[in-house]
Amino acid sequence: MVADLSQIVKAYDVRGVVPDQWDESLAELFGAAFAQVTGASAIVTGHDMRPSSPGLSAAFARGAASRGADVTEIGLCSTDQLYYASGALDLPGAMFTASHNPARYNGIKLCRAGAAPVGQDTGLAEIRALVERWSTSGAPAPAATPGTVTRRDTLADYAAHLRSLVDLTAVRPLKVVVDAGNGMGGHTVPTVFEGLPLTLVPLYFELDGTFPNHEANPLDPANLVDLQKRVREEGADLGLAFDGDADRCFVVDERGEPVSPSAITALVAARELARNGGKGTVIHNLITSWSVPEVVREHGGTPVRTRVGHSFIKAEMAATGAIFGGEHSAHYYFRDFWYADTGMLAALHVLAALGGQDGTLSALVAEYDRYAGSGEINSTVDDQAARLAAIRAAYEGREGITLDDLDGLTVTSADWWFNVRPSNTEPLLRLNAEARDETTMRRVRDEALSIIRG
Fold first, then answer.
1. Total domains present in the chain
2. For labelling alongside 346, which of 72, 83, 134, 283 has CA 20 to 30 A away?
3. C-alpha 17, offset from chain centre
């Protein structure tokens, strides 16, 4: 097929509807282009449980092998398991997943050896250009010596590596409900949690890329309802929810209440700093809570604020040698995991922290959840730039208020802040607000929304 790649090659990955926007013939060209752009003699691939994933992954492997690259297929895996393989084997990698998108979507997350991200500025633009050329003129002639395609199971090694990074020896018996959303958490959780003193209550562990129970997107509160209900019914100590490719993890406490990802970021940051002698840099994006940099400083660390998005976090972590990074979207990044994100390792930290003391999770995280936040609120607008200019005009010059443009527009006062960011792919503005108390937060949120929505 001759594809409109502008619709499927995003800033950091490939994603689109199968077979309408891309198919196995295009996946094969992506494999050939990936091998050529990276210059790799060997690569590793993995895929999620979507019906189209095995075929797309196999086609990609054929394309890479046609350019002379040896391909190690690890088969069914979570995205962070693919990152593990890329790091442990020191190979460029390709993960076939559309994360939390609906069933008809699929995509490719690409990385260089050591799980280093591939985006528009780090190879994806060149890959797209090659695929576009080849989709019209035909694939290049195969290499004189084609590569091989072999299978390898990395699940046990992945689990062992994660568990080597967290001290789980003092964990008391806990009951934990895990909602895998019919995604890859159902594949990885039983092996990672094996042997721990946990009573595991599984929800939707059957691998099913049609997502028959609910979307595998825990960022939407509607998709946490089943987990919250089950935690209360079971009298569980906590609940965990993974997205479709199981690289993000959301937490609910013993009351079934969601725990802010910012509070999890702060909790894990404190633990990672303790593991590193009370020293180290921690990255957080600009919509995480004020709690995060406060906790980092209180535990001897240096907080560094970045734009939203994994490429910015990973680049800043590599530049600073940061030990940990967190985003309010529940992506958690670890130096000892090749600076890549793994929700599973964050989950193990939560289990270790809760299981290492006698109190409840709600009491434990209260120390890290200090402010009132709005969550992310999306508004459809006709003109993103005009709405941002209106916000700037409304707040610029006000006494005690500062503005910055690191990512969208952030407006900060002594008692509150809010950030407004334009979506790169939709006519949306995204608002996040926080204040020292709920009443102030609501006032600031509503004032900002009134300007955004005109």
1. 4
2. 72
3. 21
